[in-house]
Amino acid sequence: MALNPTIRLQKYLAECGLASRRKAELLISEGSISVDGKIITEMGYKLDPELQIVRYRGELVRRKKKHTYILLNKPRGYVTTMSDPQGRPIVTSLIKDLGVRVFPVGRLDIDTEGALILTDDGELAHKILHPSHESNKTYEVLVKGPVSRGKIKKLERGIEIDGRSTWPAKISKAVKQGPASRLVITIHEGRKRQVRKMFEAVGHPVINLKRIAYGQLRLGSLPSGSYRYLSREELKKVLL
Ligand code: URA
Fold first, then answer.
1. Which CATH number describes the domain made up of 7-60?
2. Fewer CB atoms inside 10 A, N or C side of the chain?
3. Beta carbons of 24 and 61 less than 8 angstroms apart
4. Count of Cβ atoms closer than 10 Å to residue 88 Cβ
5. What is the assigned CATH class of domain 69-132+217-238?
6. 3-class DSSP state of 55
7. Ligand 1 mean position to 109 CA, how many Å?
8. Is 109 considered catalytic here?
9. Topology of domain 136-214, per CATH?
10. Which of 108, 162, 171, 219 to mutate to test ligand 1, by most ligand atoms within 8 A of the CB atom?
């Protein structure tokens, strides 16, 4: 393939995060940078980063891989695994033509809807899910029956499910809705079917469950089944 020099060396070095543009110029002039094995000290030198090898004192200098981050409003009826032996619809079938293979960060039950992050960045996914970072997750939940103040306090303090107490939770906006109640609950852990089990444990089975925020990142008005790209700034909100 023929070379197509498109970028100045100092700009490329800065884009790779090696140094600021000014500092990169110094590195070039002091003879610390080679392209295809040849030391380059010429300031206007242009290169083709697709085909040429740049080194700083022998160390390869490469552009950081750009990752894809998606926020999906998962509809009910979709599984968050990458394949399903029972042939149920998988969330990634809702995300088409990205040109990259993204996977869900964590899980939502098949019957749960709402905010689901998908990415091709395994490192960030690990960080989000690691117990030392684990973010708050906020759910809007519709449960059977009127929920008393006492039960709300119990759920907030921590309640035993699967032989272990849950961490403190926060419940707000509890309103009666006919024979049911609608509440907003924020939990810190991500145990399997946690919200359903918590409400079941106090005698109020869940009718509908929707995750409305992941950390400080809110689902907002994204329609069910739709997705959008997340910016770096929004990603930071996930970890808050
Ligand atoms: N809690 C649940 O019970 N289900 C989910 O999908 C998420 C949290």
1. 3.10.290.10
2. N
3. no
4. 11
5. alpha beta
6. strand
7. 6
8. yes
9. Alpha-Beta Plaits (3.30.70)
10. 108
CA 164 to ligand 1 center in whole angstroms = 17
In the chain, where are the structural domains located?
7-60, 69-132+217-238, 136-214
- Whether the per-residue pLDDT at 1 is higher than 70: the answer is no
Q: Is 137 helix (H, G, I), strand (E, B) or coil?
A: strand
Q: Which of 72, 117, 167, 209 to mutate to test the pocket of ligand 1 (most atoms within 8 A of CB)?
A: 209
pLDDT tens per residue, range 62-86:
887 788 999 999 999 999 998 889 9
Which residue intervals of the chain are DSSP H helices? Answer: 9-15, 21-29, 122-129, 149-157, 194-201, 232-238
Helix (H, G, I), strand (E, B) or coil at 156: helix
For residue 103, list its beta bridge partners: 119
Place of tokens 């990603």: 235
pTM given for the model: 0.78
Is the CB of residue 196 below 6 angstroms from any atom belonging to ligand 1?
yes
- Fold match, 69-132+217-238 / 136-214: yes
What are the residues whose beta carbons fall under 8 Å from the beta carbon of 15, sequence distance 6 or more? 7, 63
